[in-house]
């Protein structure tokens, strides 16, 4: 198996790779799988916040994911960049930034927010991520420019998510404003992370190594904080359900999910990979219909149709086909 190393002449951190903004069917399939994995994270967090404080949940999530991913790297015969070299230090500096803006900050804000607001409201606010991503990538890249169809597609997607979740969640908007602002802050952080993370492709770092590096870096950043604030040794033993939720959160919604995330990011760009936030509520609804005997209502059909229209507008191929 090829080893994951970076040459001494690795591209500087300010460089980015050229992105193909139109996704192929493999990336769309990966995006759907990613939406299922991340959709589960809201459920797992909702279980964990009953027993554990914010930073403890986040640290369990990233540390367990880092252990899993490092073990996978060893089993595949790969290794992380050597921090003793100049190139390795640049890459690890990038891992630290990515771990901060893609894990430590947004995970903490969402977990804290979910302790105060319903998961449906959190899903709606999290779905604004592509809107922020359109703006950020327009300002910070040369190949993911804002266009009217992309902007219209993002707005359609957000409206679709709001319709899909339903009026009850919308009525809760404005209640507990600080928690809702926290989730919006996480969405903004994710948007910057999507743009920043493009540089790992130019550095010659594989998706699994990038995922491993960022959760390892975020573990190093979060451990001192959890020891100082939560003092986990003073907490009561969590329930079996909470322990299982944390394991699933780390293994499925973090370790496996981030391998897919960085694969899509490297090939299709920040705006496209963050479209997953539209699909997360769709996945949750469809799983409920398939496995929990929930019914498909009119609002679900309308919401999914709006989200589909938004995704088609952002992808652009259907619009070009209709023009021809």
Largest sheet: none
Separation of the first and last Cα atoms: 45 Å
Q: What structural category characterises the helix and strand content?
A: mainly alpha
Low-confidence blocks of residues? 1-17
Provide the helix percentage: over 70%
Q: Which word captures the global form?
A: globular
Number of helices: 15
Arithmetic mean pLDDT: 82
Number of strands: 0
Rg is 19 Å
Please characterize this protein's 3D structure:
- The protein is mostly helical and 324 residues long.
- It is built from 15 helices and no strands.
- The protein is globular and about 55 Å long.
Topology overview:
Elements: H1 25-48, H2 54-75, H3 86-114, H4 119-126, H5 129-140, H6 148-165, H7 167-172, H8 177-196, H9 199-202, H10 207-229, H11 240-268, H12 270-273, H13 276-291, H14 298-315, H15 317-323
Can you give me a brief rundown of this structure?
With 324 residues, the protein is mainly alpha-helical.
Provide tags for this entry.
globular, mainly alpha, disordered N terminus, 324 residues
């Amino acid at each position: 198996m090829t080893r994951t190393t970076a040459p001494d002449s690795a591209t500087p951190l300010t460089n980015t790779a050229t992105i193909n903004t139109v996704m192929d069917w493999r990336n769309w399939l990966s995006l759907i799988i990613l939406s299922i994995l991340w959709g589960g994270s809201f459920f797992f967090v909702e279980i964990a916040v009953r027993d554990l404080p914010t930073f403890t949940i986040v640290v369990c999530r990233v540390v367990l994911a880092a252990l899993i991913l490092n073990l996978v790297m060893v089993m595949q015969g790969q290794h992380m960049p050597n921090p003793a070299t100049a190139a390795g230090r640049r890459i690890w500096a990038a891992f630290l930034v990515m771990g901060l803006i893609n894990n430590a900050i947004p995970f903490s804000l969402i977990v804290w927010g979910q302790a105060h607001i319903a998961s449906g409201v959190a899903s709606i606010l999290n779905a604004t991520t592509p809107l922020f991503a359109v703006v950020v990538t327009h300002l910070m890249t040369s190949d993911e420019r804002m266009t009217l169809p992309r902007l219209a597609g993002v707005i359609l997607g957000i409206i679709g998510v709001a319709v899909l979740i339903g009026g009850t969640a919308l009525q809760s908007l404005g209640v507990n404003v600080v928690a809702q602002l926290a989730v919006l802050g996480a969405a903004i952080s994710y948007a910057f992370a999507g743009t920043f993370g493009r540089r790992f492709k130019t550095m010659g770092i594989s998706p699994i190594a990038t995922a491993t590096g960022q959760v390892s870096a975020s573990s190093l950043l979060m451990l001192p904080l959890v020891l100082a604030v939560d003092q986990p040794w003073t907490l009561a033993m969590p329930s079996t359900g909470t322990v299982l939720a944390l394991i699933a959160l780390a293994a499925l919604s973090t370790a496996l999910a981030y391998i897919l995330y960085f694969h899509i990011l490297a090939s299709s760009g920040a705006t496209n990979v963050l479209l997953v936030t539209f699909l997360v509520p769709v996945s949750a609804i469809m799983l409920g219909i398939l496995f929990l005997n929930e019914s498909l209502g009119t609002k679900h059909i309308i919401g999914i149709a709006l989200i589909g229209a938004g995704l088609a507008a952002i992808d652009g191929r259907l619009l070009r086909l209709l023009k021809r």
